[in-house]
UniProtKB/TrEMBL annotation:
Belongs to the acyl-CoA dehydrogenase family. Residues 259-403 form the Acyl-CoA dehydrogenase/oxidase C-terminal domain. Residues 126-223 form the Acyl-CoA oxidase/dehydrogenase middle domain. This is Acyl-CoA dehydrogenase family protein. The lineage of its organism: Bacteria, Bacillati, Actinomycetota, Actinomycetes, Kitasatosporales. It comes from the Bacteria. Its cofactor is FAD. Keywords: FAD, Flavoprotein, Oxidoreductase. InterPro entries: Acyl-CoA_DH_CS, Acyl-CoA_Oxase/DH_mid-dom, Acyl-CoA_Oxase/DH_mid-dom_sf, AcylCo_DH-like_C, AcylCo_DH/oxidase_C, AcylCoA_DH/ox_N, AcylCoA_DH/ox_N_sf, AcylCoA_DH/oxidase_NM_dom_sf. It comes from Streptomyces peucetius. Pfam families: Acyl-CoA_dh_1, Acyl-CoA_dh_M, Acyl-CoA_dh_N. The keyword Oxidoreductase applies. Residues 10-115 form the Acyl-CoA dehydrogenase/oxidase N-terminal domain.
Length: 409
């Protein structure tokens, strides 16, 4: 088991510098354009694919880094480049993780390559869980999956919302209710293969930030998928449902199992690392500006009022990274999240990104408020981190309930 360390090894440094080069030379120059266009930056994803940054192999390598620092390091560098473009690059990973977590080896081998495509013909994938009436409250999900035994097909009906890459994805992973009596334990995940009739894109959202990332509704109308598209297979689902029914009978209710919570705890630090990347980017712009902008005959950083803000910004960013790295190390080495350390890292890092990007605008004064400088975009982008993958309020709820030893519903 790897000891916790703050020293990146030579391989990690090499990967970090390579990612940083791509972020600096390819993502940064394209950031403002794709933010204005509010479109998926296909040419940038293709560039990433050509050099191996947009591929399952690369993320798998980082995921299996025994120190646990591979994924946070990757997220920080890409989101330091630009959050909207970075989400377009890593968004497919959300769906891929859904398949890896629940699918059979055959399903992983069949669908993951179709999610990424190849460098000449890149594809993206979408993970569709949220619904108009089921955001934080996942158990309120209504999209139904009904088994047609005669044809060995599942029939999906419902409307998903806020899906990253929804409607433009080659492969959609859709979470649906198979047994409404069981709340969130009655859910299952399905692959919807490319060009399946009945799946369509609903409204595409015009967003406050991360505008280069496509977010849309996904409408499912009598979508028929083969039995083989149920992730994990029917036998495993039947077994799981039978266990849940037994527990419900015994008064187990709809409590989220520890295993499910552990998965969230393990994935949340990755979002924290994205937030650290955006915060660091804004801090660096503000620091440079404060050293060169002169007012009253001296650089504005000579004023304590400005210098102390920068000191606080940097301190918060470093603290956020430490929480993220700790939680990622715990996830990789199998340490139990007894105090919801994964949620802590996401909570603190996301709030840090919002605060620090706002401070950066203040330090740049009027320039900070314009689109001539990137901190305005970074501040808009940063607002997402306190919302997706569980809002800040939900993180606090999870932390508080974990500390109190109370069940998490
Ligand atoms: C850009 C973007 C991309 C996204 N990508 C995806 C994706 O790819 N796939 C996907 O499935 N989903 C995605 N989401 C959805 C995202 O995960 C949800 O927006 C999030 O879970 C919050 O749900 P909601 O928006 O319905 O807010 P709500 O759950 O309605 O919450 C509204 C407010 O009430 C608060 N609140 C709710 N319940 C409680 C409580 N018990 N205690 C205290 N406060 C509470 C919340 O914290 C929030 O402040 C995305 C969202 C956005 C904006």
């Amino acid at each position: 088991m790897a000891e916790f360390t703050l020293d990146l090894n030579d391989d990690q440094k090499q990967v970090r510098d390579w990612l940083n080069g791509f972020a600096r030379d390819v993502m940064r120059p394209a950031a403002a354009e794709w933010d204005e266009r509010e479109e998926t930056p296909w040419p940038v994803i293709q560039e990433a694919a050509k050099i191996g940054i947009y591929s399952l192999d690369f993320y798998a390598q980082q995921f299996f880094d025994p120190t646990g620092l591979g994924i946070p390091m990757t997220m920080e560098e890409l989101f330091w480049g630009d959050a909207g473009i970075a989400l377009s690059i890593v968004g497919t990973g959300l769906a891929a993780v859904g398949v890896i977590a629940n699918g059979t080896e055959e399903q992983i081998g069949t669908w993951i390559p179709q999610m990424y495509g190849d460098a000449n013909d890149v594809k993206v994938a979408a993970f569709c869980s949220s619904e108009p009436d089921a955001g934080s409250d996942v158990a309120s999900m209504r999209t139904r999956a009904v088994y047609d035994e005669a044809k060995d097909e599942w029939v999906l009906n419902g409307t998903k919302t806020w899906a990253t890459n929804g409607g433009i994805a080659n492969v959609h992973v859709v979470v649906a209710v198979v047994d409404p009596e069981l709340g969130s334990k009655g859910h299952a995940s399905f692959i919807v293969p490319p060009s399946t009739p009945g799946l369509s894109q609903g409204q595409k959202f015009k967003k406050h930030g991360i505008r280069a990332s496509h977010t849309a509704e996904v409408v499912l109308e009598d979508v028929r998928v083969p039995g083989s598209c149920l992730l994990g297979g029917k036998a495993k689902l039947d077994e799981r449902l039978a266990r849940a029914r037994e527990k419900a009978k015994a008064g187990g209710g709809d409590r989220v199992k520890n295993a499910a919570m552990a998965t969230f705890e393990a994935s949340r630090p990755a979002v924290g690392a994205m937030a650290v990347g955006t915060a660091r980017a804004a801090y660096e712009v503000a620091l440079d500006y404060a050293k060169t902008r002169e007012q009253f005959g001296r650089p504005i950083i000579d004023n304590q009022g400005v210098a102390f803000q920068l000191a606080d910004m940097r301190t918060r960013i470093d603290a956020a990274r430490l929480l993220v790295w700790r939680a990622s190390w715990m996830a990789t080495t199998g340490k139990p999240f007894t105090s919801a350390e994964g949620s802590m890292s996401k909570l603190f890092a996301s709030e840090t990104a919002k605060k620090v990007t706002g401070q950066a605008i203040q330090i740049l004064g009027g320039n900070g408020y314009t689109r001539e400088y990137p901190v305005e975009r970074m501040h808009r982008d940063a607002a997402i981190y306190t919302i997706f993958e569980g809002t800040s309020e939900i993180q606090r709820l999870v932390i508080a309930r974990t500390l109190a030893g109370m069940p998490i519903r």
